[in-house]
Amino acid sequence: MIKTMFGLIATLIAIPVAAFYVGDPLNDQQYHMLKVATIIMLIAAFSCFIVSEITRNCSQVDKLWSTIPILYTWYFAYASYWHSRTVIMAILTTLWAIRLTYNFSRRGGYHLIPWKGHEDYRWEVLRQNPALQGRFKWAMFNLFFISIYQQSLILLFTLPSLLSAFGKNQSLTFMDLIAGGLFILFLILETIADQQQYNYQQEKHKRINENQPLTPPYSDGFVRSGLWKYVRHPNYASEQAIWLSFYLFSVAATGNWLNWSLMGGILLILLFIGSSNFSEEISAKKYNGYKDYQKSVPRFIPKLW
């Protein structure tokens, strides 16, 4: 997992540098928009780092993951003089944010005291890693990966909105309809997947708390029905597909199937590969049947045969 994270940080540096020299250069307005958004990102990253170091709760970034994209996309819509494409993109991002914020909130992610709330269990597992032992090592990991990397990634996967602001194709096209339709489709699938997992975990823990026997499927310990019988991470798969669909708006705006704003989607996929690897390592140790589940069910893409 540590090697994966260092690889993600290196990729974060390499891909934007390479992408900067591919495709049409940014105009002055887009440069200004990118500069403002980058300042917001750095403020958010260092705020998360400081608060998480003081409180020892590293889920500060998680609290902003679903909320700060609203700020970026509505700022891009405003800076593009409310162009219809960027407004649509901001509305879709807001729908995504409301759903994800609600899902994070009902799992205890937020608290009346803003810096409190549930911390993702994976951060505590990582603290036990020998490579991260010691306050200084963990602080550097927190600064560069948890805070700066993830805040940078959040900005990057919203950048198709910036590129769409002053694209060559100012009129809405059939590609915009496809992008919006796919975005909503995968948002619905992600909602269903998260609800299925939530229902399963709620019932499982209810039975545990009431000292009831855990009969199948709750004796498995993990959900493997509904969308989860087709892929091991339908919520992760949908999340990646949502932001790849979002990228299609920039294709409609530029007329180019490949442009530099795809880098956010690529980095998001790499992050989810690393994150799912780590989660599955934990699950395989915790649940006896998980390795068989891994062998029989694909990770992200369902078998079509």
What characteristics describe this protein?
305 residues; mainly alpha; 11 helices; 70% helix
Structural features, described:
This protein has helices at 2-20, 28-55, 60-65, 68-79, 84-106, 121-127, 135-165, 174-209, 234-254, 263-286, 290-296. The chain is an all-alpha fold. The two termini are 32 Å apart. It has one domain (2-287). Helix 2 packs antiparallel against helix 7 (135-165), helix 5 (84-106) runs antiparallel to helix 7 and helix 9 (234-254) packs antiparallel against helix 10 (263-286). The protein is built from eleven helices and no strands.
Helix content: over 70%
Number of helices: 11
Based on CA atoms alone, the radius of gyration comes out at 20 Å
Could you say which overall geometry the principal axes of the C-alpha atoms support?
Answer: globular
Task: Report the order of strands and helices.
Answer: HHHHHHHHHHH
Overall mean pLDDT = 88
- Low confidence ranges: none
> Main β-sheet, in a few words?
none
How much of the polypeptide forms β-strand, as a percent range? under 5%
Whole-number tally of structural domains: 1
DSSP strand tally: 0
Query: Span between N and C termini?
Result: 32 Å
> Structural class, from secondary structure content?
mainly alpha
